[in-house]
């Protein structure tokens, strides 16, 4: 059986094209490697021939001379849009490293070497990368991963462990997926610059089965129907010398018609309300508050103040306000929301705000949290916006903790009356 032929995608090759070769776009990538070594991310196009069983990666310190290859299996590589990604680890710094790839089919036949790539790095500075915080979720809930992008940096996501998941985007700094079954999902985010220097970070999502909501049923019993009963008694006196007397008595009960009443209560999500503008901000009076609304139809106003964190987005913005009853600590968050939020706080009034130095983009995953001290009688406004143009289900929670001490009244003493002594004279 002939070896499978792997052709170069000449439009993307940086070297001269040769038949039966693998195109490799290779970038340096730093992971958990020694300080005198580095990793490279190998990329090559999937060959058109059917029956490809796998690939072998060859490395050596002289051109065309390689050590024993590494067999790349499905768990060691990822394929996206016809391109295979594989991480080759621990290439020594300051040493020539030649890399090539072959393909083989199920019969064991192997192709020629791909175009060879040389790596001889002395020093490299990887870009920063943040895949986000580990988190928990339920089956069917939208999960957001990643963080804000950096200018001039490219990104690539791949799933390393867990049930198969479909990402909304594999080439951006932020992505999302909806888990279809419970399990531990692990994703890796690779960031690399125009020179090919890269870095890698991972995030884990623990997914549990969604809770089944059972409707609450309230049964209100009603009186059992009582049929109409009528009893008539006729009493006739025994014939005698006195006239006959007939007495008639009747007792009737009025029927009561009723039925068992069943009331079913289910949880209904709150839809987008009137707090789309600052002047209609939801007023919160309780020390502990939580609400859920949808912000898909929310808008932003030209008078909305600047947002001092994240990407400064004011998209899909909604408003809340709270007047501090005393000095204390005020904490607000959007934990439980299903989209990327930004949370900012202000004092003042609509159109004349002063930003509170508490603005947050990503506190838990892509949800936000702020906490700051308050002054009695001051009203604080909260602006919740979306990092992107997409809204969703917003969970807004607020808690207030007073720092004002309450005096405890002293107990009132009750005087116990003294007993009264009565003297009685003895006769004598």
Could you write a compact summary of the structure shown?
The chain is an all-beta fold. It is 0% helix and 43% strand. It has no helices and 27 strands.
Number of helices: 0
Structural class: mainly beta
Shape: elongated
Order of helix and strand elements from N to C terminus: EEEEEEEEEEEEEEEEEEEEEEEEEEE
Distance between the termini: 144 Å
Q: Helical residue percent? A: under 10%
Mean pLDDT: 76
Cα-based radius of gyration, to the nearest Å = 39 Å
> What's the β-strand tally?
27
Percentage of β-strand residues: 35-45%
Description:
There is one protein chain. The chain is mostly beta strands. It has strands at residues 27-30, 37-45, 52-60, 70-72, 77-80, 83-92, 97-105, 117-119, 135-138, 143-146, 154-161, 174-177, 183-192, 198-208, 216-220, 230-236, 246-252, 261-265, 282-284, 288-294, 315-323, 328-333, 341-349, 352-360, 369-374, 379-386, 393-402. The strands form seven sheets. Strands 1, 2, 5, 6, 9, 11, 13 and 14 form an eight-stranded mixed beta sheet that branches. Strands 19-21-26-23-24 form a five-stranded mixed beta sheet, with no helix packed on it.
What would the keywords be for this entry?
0% helix; elongated; eight-stranded mixed β-sheet; mainly beta; 428 residues; five-stranded mixed β-sheet; disordered N terminus
